[in-house]
Inverse folding.
């Protein structure tokens, strides 16, 4: 006997407005059908009506947990269309800000995962404390707390403040300690291990054929990271590894995030050490000549949630067509495959482990 | 393509060039770190594509997005339900003929 | 102190009872019941506030601060808010069952509290089989959840109801086996008898630690405390069997939650921590302090663990708790009885 239950669009753990129609047999999930589109704003159409540099604020709203990453991906696409080189110091500044954003986003993930598994917001509050400090640092660097809009063509709006390096180093060692604490706390908790190990298995072949992105792909044992595969900025000069886990389950997906947090900390430390002096400010919008008509550029970026590919057909005034490959979109599309046959309670921990942001899914 | 190791579908999208419609497939060979782009020109008024579902299951939602946003018919696939948004009886929203500032309910521009 | 006063009143009336009617005895019991209800309510209220504050402290936040000093009136404000709200009965709900579900639950819970002895003198009745009666009544609670869950016609409540019965079969047997060990050790089924038996030897937590662990886990499950709060699993089932309850009924359900916690910590204090025995302070105070400390532990557990899954609870119940409780029974028999 199977029962069809409707979860959402308003539900404590759907990460925004997502509706799931779930067929359950007792407590076992038979089929999940995600109904999306509640947040569909047609950003891809909207940007066709805006000037090039009017668009970054729209891009930031695609992913409100890691706005800077989308901002950067879009600006990099425009830069590629215009053929603009990014100043060397600006490359470092962008990289540091992107990695700080990744740390903030992954910390958020840890809290949300525990929440989805039924914890009383404890982990959520703890990581928010740390995330807040990262956001404060980003606020010092960009002047904004949530939606930074800090990227300009060829550089950034604001260079890092003079005491940034010192503050950042201090925060990083604090974070390193806290991440170790979280890891010990979670991995020594038998209930947590029981709820993550062997749950929501996505084999490497399935991960490939379903086209999942980012940490979910790497948790299935496929080592693909845009930062290594198609290095942009100074990633190739810096010292970091691509985190890969072969567990394919929820635990591997959680573990990947912990490893990436550590890698990001390493990256920022390295970048702060190697950062050259000089000018990092980007060009004023008016000084940019229009790009050629119908020039096609494709730019890939590794966002905290996975690979984002921006495909842009240019026009002298505004983007003629901008197509965004959202990592959450593909990860959510794989949900049915992963969650089939699992327990109802695990459906939500699997969703938590995919780290969805609905604004990013719907675009 | 899949035989050559291109086993990862990154994205399917389409571009409306005014007179013609072009579907773009992004494929990737993860092992050798190679990317490939397939461009397929479609008829503007009677656009259709064969489904790629049996080769790349990842194509599922992308194809449905194409159906809704560009009005591209996918052979052998019926849209079970709306994925993102459906504008019945009007131009598909992502085509250039769809005017962004027109109120389609009242017809006022 | 208080219990002496109550006792004197009750005994005076009992004296009248010999000569006169049943009515006076009824009134005496009623006064006692009201007194116990007040104690329960105060405990539940303070526990509710401490829980919010302690969880907030664990999570590095402040908790309620606005209403009253240190937010002590916050729960009262919540109560007023819930009472002023409308209760909406869904169309396809069974109206009668929906209404009596929480009320029945409150009745059973307070009845159980009433059956417990609070001090050598402060008890409604000293039942010879009090222990058995308590655990028979405890098994009613999941059944009421089951009825209330099914009555709302909500699918989340349905799943929650099914889970409550599944949980019942997984932990009820280990619980009763531990209770059997307690009865074996003390040689009586009367709860005040068990307390005085502990006063004569040692607290039972020292004599049967394994039994205590099993008992504590099963009581957590019984009282729907995390990590066993599967019936109210908010991240999956919204509010479980309470999904369709609103307004005053929801307030009632929350009150029942804290009452059950009071009941559980009282039972644990009575059976394992020597009940009311202790120096200086009056017996009632000792019992309440012990119960409160036990309740604090459950708060810490609540704040820090993730929720278990229903099949894991079944496995835990049958492969760990049941053998452990049997082992406990055998050990008790070999060490202390034989």
């Amino acid at each position: 006997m199977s029962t069809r239950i409707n979860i959402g669009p308003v539900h404590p753990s759907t990460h925004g407005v997502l509706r799931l129609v779930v067929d359950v047999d007792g407590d076992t999930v038979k089929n999940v059908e995600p109904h999306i589109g509640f947040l569909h704003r047609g950003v891809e159409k909207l940007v066709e009506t805006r000037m090039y540099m009017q668009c970054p604020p729209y891009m930031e709203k695609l992913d409100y947990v890691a706005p800077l990453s989308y901002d950067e991906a879009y600006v990099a696409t425009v830069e590629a269309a215009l053929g603009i080189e990014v100043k060397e110091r600006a490359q470092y500044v962008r990289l540091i800000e992107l990695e700080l954003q990744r740390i903030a986003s992954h910390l958020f993930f840890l809290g949300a995962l525990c929440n989805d598994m039924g914890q009383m917001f404890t982990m959520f509050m703890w990581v928010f404390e740390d995330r807040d400090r990262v956001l404060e640092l980003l606020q010092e660097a960009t002047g904004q707390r949530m939606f930074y809009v800090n990227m300009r063509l060829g550089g950034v709006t604001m260079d890092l403040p003079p005491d940034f390096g010192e503050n950042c180093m201090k925060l990083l060692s604090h974070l390193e300690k806290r991440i170790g604490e979280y890891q010990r706390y979670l991995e020594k908790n038998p209930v947590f291990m029981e709820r993550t190990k062997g749950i929501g298995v996505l084999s490497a072949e399935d991960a490939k054929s379903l086209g999942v992105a980012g940490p979910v792909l790497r948790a299935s044992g496929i080592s693909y990271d845009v930062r290594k595969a198609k290095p942009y900025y100074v990633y190739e000069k810096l010292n970091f590894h691509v985190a890969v886990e072969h567990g394919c389950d929820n635990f591997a997906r959680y573990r990947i995030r912990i490893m990436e947090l550590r890698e990001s900390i390493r990256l920022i430390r390295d970048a702060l050490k190697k950062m050259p002096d000089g000018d990092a400010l980007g060009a004023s919008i008016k000084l940019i000549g229009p790009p050629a008509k119908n020039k096609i550029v494709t730019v890939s970026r590794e966002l905290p949630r996975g690979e984002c590919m921006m495909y842009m057909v240019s026009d002298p005034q505004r983007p003629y067509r901008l197509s965004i490959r959202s990592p959450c979109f593909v990860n959510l599309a794989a949900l049915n495959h992963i969650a089939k046959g699992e327990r109802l309670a695990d459906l939500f921990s699997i969703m938590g482990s995919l780290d969805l942001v609905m604004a990013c899914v719907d675009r | 393509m899949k035989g050559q190791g291109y086993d990862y579908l990154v994205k399917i999208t389409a571009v409306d060039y005014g007179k013609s419609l072009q579907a773009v497939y992004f494929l990737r060979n993860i092992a050798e770190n190679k990317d490939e782009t397939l461009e397929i020109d479609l008829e503007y008024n009677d656009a259709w594509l064969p489904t790629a579902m049996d080769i790349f299951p990842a194509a599922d939602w992308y194809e449905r997005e194409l159906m809704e946003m560009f009005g591209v018919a996918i052979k052998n696939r019926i849209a079970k339900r709306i994925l993102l948004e459906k504008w019945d009886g009007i131009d598909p929203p992502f085509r250039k003929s769809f005017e962004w500032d027109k109120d389609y309910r009242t017809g006022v521009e | 102190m208080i219990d002496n006063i109550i006792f004197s009143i009750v005994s005076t009336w009992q004296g009248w009872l010999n000569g006169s009617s049943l009515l006076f005895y009824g009134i005496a019991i009623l006064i006692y019941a009201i007194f116990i209800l007040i104690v329960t309510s105060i405990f539940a209220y303070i526990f509710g506030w401490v829980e919010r504050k302690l969880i907030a402290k664990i999570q590095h936040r402040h908790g309620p601060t606005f209403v009253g000093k240190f937010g002590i009136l916050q729960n009262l404000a919540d109560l007023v808010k819930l009472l002023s709200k409308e209760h909406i009965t869904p169309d396809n709900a069974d109206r009668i069952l929906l209404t009596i579900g929480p009320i029945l639950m409150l009745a059973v819970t307070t009845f159980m509290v009433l059956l417990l002895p609070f001090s050598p003198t402060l008890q409604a009745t000293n039942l010879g089989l009090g222990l058995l009666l308590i655990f028979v009544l405890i098994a009613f609670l999941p059944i009421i959840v089951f009825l209330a869950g099914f009555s709302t016609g909500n699918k989340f409540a349905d799943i929650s109801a099914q889970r409550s019965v599944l949980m019942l079969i997984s932990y009820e047997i280990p619980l009763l086996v531990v209770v059997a060990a307690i009865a074996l050790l003390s040689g009586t089924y009367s709860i005040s008898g068990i307390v005085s038996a502990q006063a004569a030897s040692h607290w039972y937590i020292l004599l049967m630690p394994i039994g205590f662990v099993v008992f504590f886990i099963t009581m957590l499950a019984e009282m729907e405390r995390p990590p066993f709060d599967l019936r109210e699993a908010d991240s999956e089932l919204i509010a479980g069997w309470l999904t369709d309850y609103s307004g005053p009924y929801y307030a009632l359900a929350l009150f029942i939650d804290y009452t059950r916690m009071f009941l559980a910590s009282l039972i644990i204090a009575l059976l394992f921590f020597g009940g009311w025995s202790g120096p200086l302070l009056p017996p009632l105070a000792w019992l309440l302090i012990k119960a409160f400390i036990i309740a604090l532990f459950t708060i810490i557990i609540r704040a820090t663990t993730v929720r278990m899954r229903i099949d894991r609870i079944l496995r835990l119940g049958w492969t760990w708790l049941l053998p452990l409780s049997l082992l406990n029974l055998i050990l008790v028999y070999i060490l202390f009885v034989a």
User: Anything to note?
Assistant: Chain A touches chain B at residues 35-37, 40, 42, 44-46, 48-49, 208-211, 222, 224, 229-230, 294, 298, 307, 309, 311, 313, 320-321, 323, 325, 329-330, 333, 337, 362 (CB under 8 Å).
